[in-house]
Amino acid sequence: MSKAILYDSTLCIGCRACESACADRWGLPYDDKIAAEEKISAHKLTTIETHGDHFVRRLCMNCVKPACASVCPVGALQKTALGPVTYDADKCMGCRYCMQACPFQVPTYEWSSRLPRMRKCNECYERQSQGKLTACAEACPTGATKCGDRDELIGEAQRRIAEKPGQYYGQVYGLKEVGGTSVLYLSAVPFEQIGLRTGVPSEPLPDYTWRVLELLPDVVSTGAVLLGGIWWVTNRREEVAKAEGRSPRRSGRPPSKNGQGGHAVVPEKLEGRK
Question: Are the beta carbons of 44 and 32 closer than 8 angstroms?
Fold first, then answer.
């Protein structure tokens, strides 16, 4: 079954233990200065954001149908059967299409590195492959972050809402957004109030891509016809010019008297004037 993470904002105390555990797992630096950075970056793959009296975690959503993997031209990003979206730096060509495609603006890039890589959370794929918890879930002291089978976590989230309707906003974020994600959210307030993007479509973004690609043969053939027409007109103009004993004009500037198109010849009467 596909794995996922359930993050319950109502249980989060903002201790940032998840941030520290994530940094340890990836071998990244972590200190008070980095802890104060409430944004994802190449050296911080998850972060706690503060929105008034509420906290929220940001990390890769590991979408069920990830747009990042669908646009990667070299297969550096792969959606695994276990659930996480993994990244192979050895395959990456640095095109950064994944950064443009992600609806949650998660992937970051090592701009200051001599050999830069894209960076993102992979939901502790290696740990979960061994039957372990994600580092963040293991470190969380309140149970705000929990990992397990996605279907079971969805059921648990829905039960929490049903049992305490006054404590929760009545929806599970990530259930349908962009076709579903492997990170699910519960909140006491509407999701936009804790910084989650609510304007994303419910349909998987790769499905939009395939619909566009289905149109490409028509677009390509139309473009070929147009380019062919431009070539014919240009070539015909040159043939007519040769037949009339003229040099073909290839720019918007008229040919000069010395035969070098576009370079003006100074009239003799003006050559001696200074």
Answer: no
| pLDDT recorded at residue 256 | 46
Q: Judging by beta carbons within 10 Å of its beta carbon (0-12, 13-18, 19+), is residue 44 exposed, middle or buried?
A: buried
**Identity of residue 66:** P
In angstroms, rounded to a whole number, what is the distance separating the alpha carbons of residues 51 and 194? 6
Residues 107 and 224 in one domain: no
Does residue 70 sit in the same domain as residue 120? yes
Q: Which amino acid is at 271?
A: E
> Do residues 31 and 160 share a domain?
yes
Domain final residue pick, 143, 177, 203: 203
pLDDT in tens, 132-146: 999 999 999 999 999
pLDDT digits (tens, 9 = 90+) for 179-221: 999 999 999 999 999 999 999 999 998 876 655 555 555 555 5
42, pLDDT greater than 60: yes
Tell me which residue of 102, 123, 182, 106 sits closest to 150, measured CA to CA: 182
